[in-house]
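Q: Please design a sequence for this.
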Protein backbone atom coordinates (compact mmCIF):
# COMPACT_ATOMS: atom_id res chain seq x y z
CA UNK A 1 0.00 0.00 0.00
CA UNK A 2 2.83 2.42 0.84
CA UNK A 3 4.43 1.82 -2.55
CA UNK A 4 1.16 2.56 -4.37
CA UNK A 5 0.56 5.73 -2.38
CA UNK A 6 4.07 6.85 -3.22
CA UNK A 7 3.32 6.42 -6.92
CA UNK A 8 -0.02 8.21 -6.83
CA UNK A 9 0.87 11.14 -4.61
CA UNK A 10 3.87 13.36 -4.23
CA UNK A 11 4.98 13.97 -0.67
CA UNK A 12 5.63 17.62 -1.47
CA UNK A 13 2.09 18.20 -2.73
CA UNK A 14 0.11 17.26 0.38
CA UNK A 15 0.65 17.07 4.12
CA UNK A 16 -2.76 15.57 4.82
CA UNK A 17 -3.30 11.95 5.74
CA UNK A 18 -4.16 9.77 2.77
CA UNK A 19 -7.47 7.88 2.93
CA UNK A 20 -7.60 4.10 2.97
CA UNK A 21 -8.55 3.26 -0.60
CA UNK A 22 -9.35 -0.38 0.04
CA UNK A 23 -8.15 -3.36 -2.01
CA UNK A 24 -11.26 -3.61 -4.20
CA UNK A 25 -10.99 -0.01 -5.37
CA UNK A 26 -7.28 -0.36 -6.04
CA UNK A 27 -7.67 -3.56 -8.06
CA UNK A 28 -10.72 -2.52 -10.08
CA UNK A 29 -10.25 1.23 -10.61
CA UNK A 30 -6.59 2.16 -10.20
CA UNK A 31 -4.26 -0.64 -11.27
CA UNK A 32 -6.04 -1.37 -14.58
CA UNK A 33 -5.44 2.26 -15.62
CA UNK A 34 -1.70 2.22 -14.98
CA UNK A 35 0.85 1.76 -17.80
CA UNK A 36 2.12 -1.76 -18.36
CA UNK A 37 5.50 -0.92 -16.81
CA UNK A 38 3.90 0.23 -13.54
CA UNK A 39 1.63 -2.83 -13.48
CA UNK A 40 4.71 -5.02 -13.78
CA UNK A 41 6.25 -3.30 -10.76
CA UNK A 42 3.01 -3.65 -8.82
CA UNK A 43 3.34 -7.44 -9.02
CA UNK A 44 6.19 -7.22 -6.53
CA UNK A 45 4.13 -5.52 -3.80
CA UNK A 46 2.69 -8.73 -2.34
CA UNK A 47 1.43 -12.19 -3.27
CA UNK A 48 -2.20 -11.00 -3.37
CA UNK A 49 -1.36 -8.32 -5.94
CA UNK A 50 0.67 -10.77 -7.99
CA UNK A 51 -2.22 -13.24 -8.05
CA UNK A 52 -4.78 -10.59 -9.00
CA UNK A 53 -2.66 -8.94 -11.71
CA UNK A 54 -1.86 -12.34 -13.22
CA UNK A 55 -5.53 -13.28 -13.58
CA UNK A 56 -7.33 -13.29 -16.93
CA UNK A 57 -9.96 -10.89 -15.58
CA UNK A 58 -7.36 -8.25 -14.74
CA UNK A 59 -5.63 -8.67 -18.12
CA UNK A 60 -8.95 -8.00 -19.89
CA UNK A 61 -9.64 -4.92 -17.76
CA UNK A 62 -6.16 -3.55 -18.42
CA UNK A 63 -6.47 -4.13 -22.17
CA UNK A 64 -9.84 -2.34 -22.29
CA UNK A 65 -8.44 0.70 -20.51
CA UNK A 66 -5.36 0.80 -22.72
CA UNK A 67 -7.55 0.71 -25.83
CA UNK A 68 -9.76 3.63 -24.77
CA UNK A 69 -8.88 6.75 -26.69
CA UNK A 70 -6.31 4.91 -28.78
CA UNK A 71 -6.11 4.77 -32.55
CA UNK A 72 -6.07 1.00 -32.76
CA UNK A 73 -8.18 -0.55 -35.50
CA UNK A 74 -9.52 -3.98 -36.34
CA UNK A 75 -9.50 -5.27 -39.92
CA UNK A 76 -12.25 -7.77 -40.71
CA UNK A 77 -12.05 -9.70 -43.96
CA UNK A 78 -15.09 -11.70 -45.04
CA UNK A 79 -15.96 -13.70 -48.12
CA UNK A 80 -17.02 -10.69 -50.18
CA UNK A 81 -16.29 -7.59 -48.08
CA UNK A 82 -13.64 -5.93 -45.95
CA UNK A 83 -14.23 -3.58 -42.98
CA UNK A 84 -12.18 -1.45 -40.58
CA UNK A 85 -13.55 -0.77 -37.08
CA UNK A 86 -12.25 0.87 -33.90
CA UNK A 87 -11.33 -0.99 -30.73
CA UNK A 88 -12.64 -0.37 -27.21
CA UNK A 89 -15.79 -1.52 -25.46
CA UNK A 90 -17.04 2.05 -24.95
CA UNK A 91 -16.79 3.00 -28.62
CA UNK A 92 -19.71 2.92 -31.02
CA UNK A 93 -19.46 -0.07 -33.31
CA UNK A 94 -18.77 1.90 -36.49
CA UNK A 95 -17.47 -0.05 -39.46
CA UNK A 96 -15.98 1.42 -42.59
CA UNK A 97 -16.06 -0.69 -45.73
CA UNK A 98 -12.86 -0.52 -47.74
CA UNK A 99 -12.02 -1.55 -51.28
CA UNK A 100 -9.09 -3.89 -51.76
CA UNK A 101 -6.24 -2.41 -53.84
CA UNK A 102 -5.73 -5.75 -55.60
CA UNK A 103 -8.07 -7.54 -57.97
CA UNK A 104 -9.03 -10.56 -55.89
CA UNK A 105 -11.91 -11.48 -53.62
CA UNK A 106 -11.38 -10.65 -49.92
CA UNK A 107 -11.49 -14.35 -49.09
CA UNK A 108 -8.46 -14.88 -51.36
CA UNK A 109 -6.22 -12.64 -49.25
CA UNK A 110 -4.06 -14.29 -46.60
CA UNK A 111 -2.61 -12.10 -43.83
CA UNK A 112 0.91 -13.33 -43.11
CA UNK A 113 2.12 -10.72 -40.60
CA UNK A 114 1.31 -7.28 -39.17
CA UNK A 115 3.23 -4.44 -37.50
CA UNK A 116 2.16 -0.89 -36.63
CA UNK A 117 -0.70 -0.86 -39.13
CA UNK A 118 1.26 -2.48 -41.95
CA UNK A 119 0.23 -5.89 -43.22
CA UNK A 120 2.16 -8.42 -45.22
CA UNK A 121 -0.39 -10.36 -47.25
CA UNK A 122 -0.38 -13.09 -49.86
CA UNK A 123 -2.76 -13.41 -52.82
CA UNK A 124 -4.18 -16.90 -52.95
CA UNK A 125 -4.37 -17.16 -56.73
CA UNK A 126 -0.76 -16.09 -57.50
CA UNK A 127 1.02 -16.48 -54.11
CA UNK A 128 2.47 -13.00 -54.56
CA UNK A 129 3.37 -11.14 -51.36
CA UNK A 130 2.40 -7.51 -50.80
CA UNK A 131 2.84 -4.85 -48.13
CA UNK A 132 -0.54 -3.24 -47.46
CA UNK A 133 -1.65 -0.34 -45.29
CA UNK A 134 -5.48 -0.59 -45.16
CA UNK A 135 -5.92 2.79 -43.45
CA UNK A 136 -4.36 4.82 -46.26
CA UNK A 137 -5.20 2.33 -49.05
CA UNK A 138 -1.49 1.94 -49.92
CA UNK A 139 -0.15 -1.31 -51.36
CA UNK A 140 3.26 -2.48 -52.67
CA UNK A 141 3.85 -5.72 -54.53
CA UNK A 142 7.17 -7.11 -53.23
CA UNK A 143 7.40 -10.13 -55.53
CA UNK A 144 9.83 -9.96 -58.47
CA UNK A 145 11.09 -11.85 -61.51
CA UNK A 146 13.74 -13.70 -59.46
CA UNK A 147 11.04 -15.65 -57.61
CA UNK A 148 11.51 -13.51 -54.49
CA UNK A 149 8.35 -12.60 -52.62
CA UNK A 150 6.28 -15.67 -53.42
CA UNK A 151 4.78 -17.54 -50.47
CA UNK A 152 4.45 -21.31 -50.07
CA UNK A 153 1.80 -22.10 -47.52
CA UNK A 154 3.21 -25.35 -46.13
CA UNK A 155 6.91 -24.44 -45.89
CA UNK A 156 7.36 -20.66 -45.59
CA UNK A 157 7.28 -18.26 -42.64
CA UNK A 158 6.94 -14.48 -42.91
CA UNK A 159 7.38 -11.71 -40.33
CA UNK A 160 7.60 -7.90 -40.24
CA UNK A 161 10.20 -6.05 -38.19
CA UNK A 162 11.98 -2.70 -37.88
CA UNK A 163 15.77 -2.70 -38.09
CA UNK A 164 18.25 -0.41 -36.30
CA UNK A 165 17.88 2.27 -39.01
CA UNK A 166 14.06 2.38 -38.59
CA UNK A 167 13.55 0.62 -41.91
CA UNK A 168 10.50 -1.63 -42.14
CA UNK A 169 11.53 -5.06 -43.40
CA UNK A 170 9.84 -8.29 -44.38
CA UNK A 171 11.61 -11.45 -43.23
CA UNK A 172 10.84 -14.43 -45.47
CA UNK A 173 12.07 -17.87 -44.41
CA UNK A 174 11.81 -20.47 -47.17
CA UNK A 175 12.38 -24.06 -46.17
CA UNK A 176 13.26 -26.80 -48.66
CA UNK A 177 13.95 -30.42 -48.01
CA UNK A 178 17.63 -29.88 -47.26
CA UNK A 179 17.98 -26.10 -47.28
CA UNK A 180 16.74 -23.04 -45.44
CA UNK A 181 16.78 -19.74 -47.34
CA UNK A 182 16.26 -16.48 -45.48
CA UNK A 183 15.45 -13.31 -47.38
CA UNK A 184 14.81 -9.77 -46.13
CA UNK A 185 12.90 -7.13 -48.09
CA UNK A 186 13.64 -3.47 -47.37
CA UNK A 187 10.74 -1.06 -47.68
CA UNK A 188 13.23 1.80 -47.97
CA UNK A 189 15.23 0.38 -50.89
CA UNK A 190 12.50 -1.87 -52.38
CA UNK A 191 14.99 -4.73 -52.74
CA UNK A 192 15.40 -8.25 -51.42
CA UNK A 193 18.62 -9.40 -49.75
CA UNK A 194 19.66 -12.93 -48.90
CA UNK A 195 20.71 -13.52 -45.27
CA UNK A 196 23.16 -16.35 -44.52
CA UNK A 197 21.47 -18.82 -42.19
CA UNK A 198 22.17 -22.49 -41.37
CA UNK A 199 23.91 -23.08 -44.69
CA UNK A 200 26.17 -25.85 -43.39
CA UNK A 201 23.49 -27.94 -41.74
CA UNK A 202 20.00 -28.74 -42.90
CA UNK A 203 17.12 -28.84 -40.47
CA UNK A 204 15.60 -32.31 -39.92
CA UNK A 205 11.93 -32.91 -40.58
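A: Design:
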Amino acid sequence: MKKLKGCLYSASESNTKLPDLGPDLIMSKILPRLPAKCVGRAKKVCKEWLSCISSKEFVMMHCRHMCKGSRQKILSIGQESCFISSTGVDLVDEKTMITLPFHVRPSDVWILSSLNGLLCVCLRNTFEMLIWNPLIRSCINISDSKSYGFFKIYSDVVGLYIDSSNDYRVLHIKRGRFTVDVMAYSRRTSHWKRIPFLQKKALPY
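Q: Thanks. Anything notable?
A: Helices lie at 2-8, 23-30, 36-42, 47-53, 56-67. Residues 56-67 form the longest helix (12 residues).
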